[in-house]
Amino acid sequence: MWRGYEPKDYFCYGRPLVWLMMLSQDGYWPVVGLSDEDLKTFDRNEPILQFTPQHPSTSPNVMSQSNSKYVLSAPPDDNLEIVPSNREQTDTGQGQNNKGKDPNGDTRLRLPPAWKISYCFAVFLLVLHMYLSLNGSILADSEPRAQFARINTWRDVTVIALGALALATAFVTIMFSGGPVIGELGLISWICLWLPLPVFVAVTTFDLSRLRSQRYVAGVFACVTLAMFVIETLVWLSPRDYTVFWWLCAGSDSRTCQWIAQRDFLHSAFWSTRLLHFTSGVSPVLPILFLAAAGYWWMWQSLRGVTLVDKRRPRLPERNDPVGRWYRINDHEAAKLRNTAHPLVFKLSVVIVLIIVGLFLVTVLDLHHPVQTVEGWAYDWIYTILLSLMIGTLLGILLKLVFTWLKCAQILAGLDRLPLRDEFSRMKQLSWHSLWNPGGSTLRATYKVLLRGIDCLGRLKCVLRTVDDKAPVELDVRVCIQIKIQDAMDKLKAATDEYKNVLEPVGNDDAKKEAGKSLVGKMAEWFRNRATNSSSGNRLVELKRKLCWHVVDSLERHMRETVHLPNMMEKVEDLQKAMADAAAEIVERMLEPWWLCEKAPVVSKDARLKKEEMSLTRILAEEFVALVYVNFLITVLLRMRTMVMAAIGMYVFIVLSMNVYPFEPHAALQTLAVVLLAAMGVAVAFVYAQMHRDPILSRLTSTTSGELGWDFWLKLASAGAIPVFSLLAVQFPEINRFLFSWLEPALQAVK
Predict the structure, then answer these.
(1) Does 517 lie in the same domain as 636?
(2) Same structural domain, 253 and 385
């Protein structure tokens, strides 16, 4: 403006600030303002750092004050005075639409669409997790509800608690990223936005402690969640960022306010509007959200695998003598395999490998600044710890995958040692598509084979009532086998009776009275009285009555399941053991004498060789024993599939987390992503190749043993397509911009 042409009341209060900016995908974003004076913005929405004189140093290696006059420091808060802006003079902080306007228009900051979508999605996940956790049952029609079945073992419950902690971390991070914008909405809006968190923590703690009977796990979850909230509070906020603090201490000279204002603790992340715009590429919030998503993905896939190694799991014969017959194919070996495959059981070999990898990274990385950002040392170390935890979990999954297959291969080798191997070639009616289908149901696949085994056992019982000349069976052997089969049928009937008790509305009277004394029973009685005492009236009253009866039905079903489901689980466990015991008796008393008298060639095949006709008794006996082992093998292979899916999902989230923000050293992080992809490719390719070459699995899937056909390469390519594409998307900006171009219309539609 030329001198002499300025307005009469014009006065220049100061020169423009120097801003430290960050270049993002859609422009420049301010990080912090730099000034040699103690300045504060009217609305405190942008941080300002002051250049202050440097204290003289006694070290000869440090530049003198005359050579280096200024350093960056936070502005002092000696006087807690706030200069009210036009918006603050007219707006009392309640956030009404008709307030907060100055002559130039409404200057209030708005929450961007990306933040709103993230918040709504986080609340949706919190509600979904609570619903599945409270309504989880092994009798559920949907696979997700069956995954959250109440299995009262501390390891299984801990898996659910870790997933809930990941969700709570994501929600708290999203809320703190709102900064003063959320505070300006008013106290009521602020409370409503935070309300899902305490409700989620309370419901999850109740579910873990009361419904799943794991009070210690629930207590640890509540304490860790509280600690996480406190740490995030200290990292993201200083006392000056709280609207309540300015309401109480603005203009106050009290020592308490002065002391609180100077307490920064871990606070070093300067809030600005870039934190709200998650798609800008410079928001430090999105990396934390992706790591939380990786943790929840691990929980989801682990739950799908845990349901395969609990009391419902298939059993193998509990026989040890003679050693040569049952070596590698008894339940003792199966127990070792289940421990290897469990997500929270850590073998010493896995721990040693992870320790070696950790020591190698310690020697390579800079311990003072392993990951560098402009957010401060607290954020750097928190992100480093979370990233290391997710990478360690990913490597642990890959190691578990390899060790699980090695243990499973020992059982398969034991089966290939028996003449029973020919029966696996005859099982053409079993579908193996569910083993490779990522969205396939794990529980339905195992139950299908279990039902086939029960059906075969019933037919074998009918055949043993008659004399088969082609496969003679001694009378005492026939009677012994029939007793074992009848014992399995009795166990099936007991499990069915318990299942009926769960479904029947009345159930056992004594059990119902005992359940009525619990908190859930009292709640059901209260809703029943409300529904009964409600007089007929308008539609609102009728809707209220129907809602109360629906709640009563749900609570009574919960009480019946609480009483009868543990008994039903024990009956199913007894059924699995009885079927394994019957299979062992059939092998020892029936099949082994026939195998010793076998006269057919072992490996020779020729059209001139006359093929003997097999008896129906032997076919059914071998089929039942094979189904017992196939039922076990399917559970193991499905668990391995969940490991592969968990590793793929976690890798994608880790790569996205490292590339949605300009972390340094960028080259080292990119190298780490490539190394993780190579490690995952080697582990998955090794396991898939060994599975396709295994003789028993080749017989089951009607493929050539020892060869890797097109089926192997297609499955390997399908498993590696998503990780490779995610790595390429972050390496080449063109692909990244193409993906964001598809998301932009959706974000614009929310505005």
Answers:
(1) no
(2) no
